[in-house]
Amino acid sequence: MRRKLAAGNWKMNGLGADLAELERLAAAPAPSQTGRLICPPATLISRATLVAGDIAIGGQDCHAAQSGAHTGDISAEMLADCGASAVILGHSERREDHGETDATVAAKVAAAWSEGLLAVVCIGESLAQRDAGETLALIGSQLAGSLPDTATGANTVIAYEPIWAIGTGRIPTLEQINEVHEFIRTTLTDRFGGEGHAFRILYGGSVKPENASEIFSVANVDGALVGGASLKADDFQAIIDALDAA
Ligand code: 13P
């Protein structure tokens, strides 16, 4: 019922030459059950759309305002204008590096929707928060604060990314992933009713070809948001294949 999604977040990596990796991904047969999304740095979005085939291209952030005096920022309209169809919002690296709050993220989500972009909203706890037993409370408050009331499964994807699993090679146990994804599903259905079942919930944090199948076997894991392993076509393709087969 929910179409699976393999999303790659290139973060601040990638020059023109790296579009060859995207071209290789696009040359592979399209998976039957799984959508594909690559979010390169903003500098590559226009060129990426030219080689991406039916792989969707997204941004990694947008400003909440449509235009104006915000040096260095990019609006949702600009992303859409250069061919993006999605945008990652509220990634923990932006929450940390740029002081983004849930309210900032919610405003950006609304801006993304107003330009027809799919919002990929990231949430997740730090190791200190997990060790303090605060994970589910934090996830609940991030969801409450980062999602406007008109969120639907069609305009929004949730990405659960425990901060301590990002770029560390360390992943939560399958039980921990299951617990959080089930909690996110329940929180969504409590708030949005039956529509809560329509949201894709991605897991992110050290997803690799070697661990993808077991992660995708967990209930309510509808795909992945992949950092490092999305930079190489072979690795990301292996993750796509594992997801499509799950
Ligand atoms: P890694 O896959 O490199 O751990 O990054 C995860 C992530 O932050 C994706 O947004």
Structural overview:
With 246 residues, this protein is of the alpha/beta class. The chain has one domain: Alpha-Beta Barrel (TIM Barrel), CATH 3.20.20.70. 39% of the residues lie in helices and 16% in strands. The protein has 10 helices and 8 strands. It has an 8-stranded parallel β-barrel, surrounded by 5 helices. The protein is globular. The chain starts with a strand and ends with a helix. 1,3-dihydroxyacetonephosphate is lined by residues 9, 91, 161, 166-167, 204-207, 225-229.
What order do the helices and strands come in, and which of them pair?
Blueprint lengths: L3 E6 L9 H9 L6 E6 L5 H7 L4 E4 L16 H6 L4 E4 L2 H6 L4 H13 L3 E6 L3 H5 L3 H12 L9 E5 L13 H19 L7 E5 L7 H5 L6 E4 L6 H13 L1
Parallel strand pairs: 1-2, 1-8, 2-3, 3-4, 4-5, 5-6, 6-7, 7-8
Helix pairs in contact: 1-10, 5-7, 7-8
Bound molecules: 1,3-dihydroxyacetonephosphate.
1,3-dihydroxyacetonephosphate (13P) binds next to strand 8.
